[in-house]
Amino acid sequence: xxxxxxxxxxxxxxxxxxxxxxxxxxxxxxxxxxxxxxxxxxxxxxxxxxxxxxxxxxxxxxxxxxxxxxxxxxxxxxxxxxxxxxxxxxxxxxxxxxxxxxxxxxxxxxxxxxxxxxxxxxxxxxxxxxxxxxxxxxxxxxxxxxxxxxxxxxxxxxxxxxxxxxxxxxxxxxxxxxxxxxxxxxxxxxxxxxxxxxxxxxxxxxxxxxxxxxxxxxxxxxxxxxxxxxxxxxxxxxxxxxxxxxxxxxxxxxxxxxxxxxxxxxxxxxxxxxxxxxxxxxxxxxxxxxxxxxxxxxxxxxxxxxxxxxxxxxxxxxxxxxxxxxxxxxxxxxxxxxxxxxxxxxxxxxxxxxxxxxxxxxxxxxxxxxxxxxxxxxxxxxxxxxxxxxxxxxxxxxxxxxxxxxxxxxxxxxxxxxxxxxxxxxxxxxxxxxxxxxxxxxxxxxxxxxxxxxxxxxxxxxxxxxxxxxxxxxxxxxxxxxxxxxxxxxxxxxxxxxxxxxxxxxxxxxxxxxxxxxxxxxxxxxxxxxxxxxxxxxxxxxxxxxxxxxxxxxxxxxxxxxxxxxxxxxxxxxxxxxxxxxxxxxxxxxxxxxxxxxxxxxxxxxxxxxxxxxxxxxxxxxxxxxxxxxxxxxxxxxxxxxxxxxxxxxxxxxxxxxxxxxxxxxxxxxxxxxxxxxxxxxxxxxxxxxxxxxxxxxxxxxxxxxxxxxxxxxxxxxxxxxxxxxxxxxxxxxxxxxxxxxxxxxxxxxxxxxxxxxxxxxxxxxxxxxxxxxxxxxxxxxxxxxxxxxxxxxxxxxxxxxxxxxxxxxxxxxxxxxxxxxxxxxxxxxxxxxxxxxxxxxxxxxxxxxxxxxxxxxxxxxxxxxxxxxxxxxxxxxxxxxxxxxxxxxxxxxxxxxxxxxxxxxxxxxxxxxxxxxxxxxxxxxxxxxxxxxxxxxxxxxxxxxxxxxxxxxxxxxxxx
Length: 961
Description:
By secondary structure, this protein is mainly alpha-helical.
């Protein structure tokens, strides 16, 4: 302020003392005098000089007669430019054409005139602004006064402040200094307390970790790290910061360790604390990725450890083997325990993962974020868990499939392989509940193993049947009434009871997919493994019934699993598998549900019973492995056919007569199928039955082994009868495309009846003395001229043979149930064919001879029907037509011969003899018919039958039948 004031005063002095040169022209004399009077002496003299000059200019101006305005306008513009060099400009201007004094003088005069006019104009402008200048000076003076007042005020305030400083400030500052010192000390104390707390954090962290309070430990660490950032200026805190970082890394490692423990031992509380800790550390997604890696790693590491634990003791000394190689080296007796251990281990992992999924479905880690943003990491976690289910299950499937493919399962026994099937099916059920996958790869691997095993097992069963056949006594067994008495069929009692009804059977047989039979299978009883027997409890899945501490593969894996509902929810609906009831329920079932079947005892022998047991074991494999059920059912049929073939080989090849026409095409087809498909794979076939053939079958006292033959045939009939009980159930198991095979087999219900014909013919052809009867018939005179009322003597002999046969049958019926119809039908067959053979040997025959033939035949048939209490219209017509052919007209006889060409009821020899006898007097007709018969004989090719008769009797006996 003082400086401004000083400068302003100096400016005023300069303005006051400035010398002003005012031209005289244009002013009045009064103004000139006034100004001159006030001016100092040197100013007056200068003014006089200027006046003289002005007079000269005035004279020049007058001479030029120019106005001031014109003179001002004549001034060049460069004179108004402050940066121009006017002297140099004028010199160049006057000297441009050389030195011209006159030009120089004129220029000087012109410049003087211009200066005067310009000076005059400037002075005039100053005078016009004088009032404004005075006003400005007045304002400046007022401002100066105000500045002086302000200066006085400031000086007064400074004096007061100096007084206050002297009297008050010293004491106040001492108080402020003390307060500031106290605040600094408090801050230092808080810093020391915080540093002390930071140094004791490690102990608190260890305590929290011991209590598994990971979230509190993470929160404490994060709080400490935040506090450390405020005290980084201290050296001790810097070292503590490094230690906290190391502790944080150690904490994360410990969290990962505990997270890895969750794979094999899941704990809900620990897992909840872990997730809260990872959330605080902002590593929930990383932890979820790490958890999946832990599960996958656990699958691979545990499976190798389990398999190596069952390997040979010296396997550790060998170089490191692959998983498949270790599985190949496992002993057969260790396969099932190893598989069970693997399944238990896998169950522990799956149960743990399943609980992890349930936990994340029930608890949301970022629920608040989801409400605000609409998106949260919980969605990523759930998607990750869903994808991880399929991946973990596929890894487990790969390991199990490698085990099944590498292990020697086909060398297992039946019960052991069924146990493997049960375990695999239960594992499949676990997979469906775990991730909804059908485990087709597992089923395909098990299908391959099942086919290999069943192929070998089927041959073993056939060889086992051969062993039974070789040691069979062919005596009936007592107290066998139904197939459900066998333990192999106890698991299907309820199923057979339901499928016994026509409605259920119709539904089961017409539905293409067994699994879709909801109407039938909705009452399937599902039982839990722990023996509770509650169908309500069993309807829940394994993950609700068991935990990681127990598994579906614990207990009952040796024998109980075979009768347990191991296929709950998978195969039960397709196979109608039911669990076992008590013995009281079994007795009640047999007494009520199958009362009509159990009222009569069935005739079976040891071999037939073993065949039924084999079928029962095959049935269990059908229930467990639907994929090979067509193959298994076809093998069941092969067992039945093999038994029939064996019976035929033992009891149906020692007939004394030809039995070619006793074999129906379907019977021949089945016997040939056994020869081509089965016998080539049996090492023990053919068996040695010479002892039985030479002793029992050659003993006339026992009717050549008729009791044994009856037991063999009727046991086969009983087997087929019991197999019919399984028809609807097998249709339920078979695919729709494979059901016609079973239906065609069942439709041939006369299978054993057709087989019984050659078997019983071997007896009936020996009971009658065929050679003696034929010889006596040849001695009869058939060309008599009169009709006799007395039958021939051979008829009495034949009747006595029949009577003796009936007496022997009465004795045999005391030992075994007698199939009278089949036996007597065989006897009628042999006898009638014997009569036809005898009648065909007649060379000459008259009308009386034909009457005698009818009389003898009527006598025999009446006696046979009387003693057997049966009627034989077919056999009666067979002989009647042959006898009545003598009474045909030539045209009728020729037509009848033509029909026999197609019917093949009589042999060519018999028809030829008949033609020669009837047409003995008509040579032309005889030759015509013989030529017709010769064409038949030539065109007909002999057909081979599966049997070769062992008898070497004469041609007349071979052509009896």
